[in-house]
Design a protein that fits this description.
globular
Length: 294
C-alpha cells in the first residue's frame, strides 16, 4: 500500500534498491518499529553503535534525497522506522520541499513540522531559507533524543517549545548523561547549531563523522572556541519576546502566521542594526583613542 502522503513522491524519481529512502514510497512491514531510546553513548557499547548505524543510514537516505533537491522538513523519531532486519526507513515526505521546482514550498511566514525537532529557521517561518542543513539539525535532534531520552527542546506548550528552539541552546548531552563520549557529543551539538553556517555543510558530512565515530576514528568536527561561546552567552542574555500562538503551528497561509513572522524578522533586523551601530561606535572610540595617543 502506497503511503497516502506521498503521491508526489513518485515524481521525485527517488528509486533505487540500495538507498533506504526508496522504501518511503511504501508503508513499512508490520514488524517495523519506531526508532527508540535510550543508549549509553559510548564507543565500546554495541547498542550505541547499533543505533548510530541506524542514524547513519537515515543520514545517507536523506543525502540521496537532498541530491535530488528534496528537503524532508519533518525528521523526527516517528518518521524513522527500523525493520526487523535493522534497516532504517525514512517515512512521511508529506511536507517535503522540492528545492528546484519549489512545487512543494510553502509561503514564507508559515510554520510546518514538529517543534521539538524543528531547526530555528523553520520555527521562524523562514521557509525559503530551508536547505539540507535544516534536515541535518533535525536528524541531530533525533540523535540527541536517542542518547538523552528527550528532544533538545520541549516546553509545556507549543509556544514555549518554539521559543526555546529560537533563543536557547540545548543542554549538553553530557549534563544529562555524564558517560556519553565527548566526540559523540561534539557531533550532535554541531548538528544542532543555531546558525546553519556552523552546522555540517551537508548531510554527507554529518554521515561521515558518524561513520568515523562508529569505526573508532578521529572525527572532523571540533568543539566551539571561547569566542563563539562568549557570543552565545551574550545572545542568551537577550530576552526575546516571541509571540507564538498554537494556531500558527502546522498552519499554511494563515494571515496570523505571516504577521508574526514579519514582526519577528523586523525584530531581528533591529537587533542586527543595533549590533552594527555598537560596532561602529567601538571603531570610532578606538580611532579617537589612537589619535589622542598620537
Amino acid at each position: 500500500k502506497r503511503h497516502t502522503k506521498l503521491p508526489v513522491g513518485v515524481g521525485f524519481g527517488i528509486r533505487t534498491p540500495d538507498i533506504p529512502v526508496a522504501s518511503t514510497l511504501r508503508c513499512p512491514p508490520p514488524t517495523a518499529k519506531i526508532i527508540t531510546t535510550l543508549y549509553k553513548g559510548s564507543r565500546h557499547d554495541q547498542e550505541t553503535l547499533s543505533i548510530l548505524r541506524i542514524v547513519h543510514q537515515a543520514a545517507q537516505a536523506l543525502q540521496f534525497a537532498h541530491q535530488h533537491s528534496i528537503i524532508h522538513r519533518d525528521i523526527k523519531p516517528q518518521n524513522i522506522l527500523v525493520t526487523s532486519g535493522g534497516q532504517a526507513k525514512i517515512m512521511d515526505f508529506g511536507i517535503a520541499k522540492d528545492v528546484q521546482a519549489q512545487s512543494l514550498a510553502t509561503a514564507t511566514g508559515t510554520i510546518m513540522g514538529t517543534p521539538q525537532y524543528m531547526p530555528p529557521e523553520q520555527a521562524l517561518g523562514e521557509t525559503r531559507d530551508l536547505d539540507a542543513r535544516s534536515d541535518v539539525y533535525s536528524l541531530a535532534a533525533v540523535a540527541y533524543y536517542c542518547f538523552c531520552g528527550l528532544p533538545p527542546f520541549q516546553g509545556p506548550t507549543i509556544y514555549e517549545t518554539l521559543q526555546k528552539v529560537v533563543q536557547d541552546d540545548p543542554v549538553p548531552p553530557s549534563r544529562i548523561k555524564p558517560g556519553i563520549d565527548r566526540d559523540l557529543e561534539i557531533i550532535i551539538l554541531k548538528g544542532l547549531e543555531k546558525s546553519k553556517d556552523r552546522r555540517y555543510a551537508n548531510m554527507q558530512e554529518f554521515a561521515d563523522d558518524l561513520e568515523r565515530f562508529i569505526k573508532g576514528e578521529p572525527i572532523l568536527a571540533q568543539a566551539p572556541g571561547l569566542a563563539h561561546l562568549a557570543k552565545k552567552k551574550i545572545r542568551r542574555s537577550r530576552r526575546l519576546q516571541i509571540a507564538i500562538s498554537v494556531g500558527l503551528v502546522l498552519a499554511v497561509g494563515v494571515p496570523g502566521a505571516l504577521t508574526w513572522t514579519a514582526k519577528l524578522r523586523r525584530d531581528k533586523e533591529v537587533r542586527e542594526a543595533q549590533d552594527q551601530q555598537r560596532g561602529k561606535a567601538r571603531a570610532h572610540l578606538e580611532s579617537a583613542r589612537s589619535l589622542k595617543g598620537a
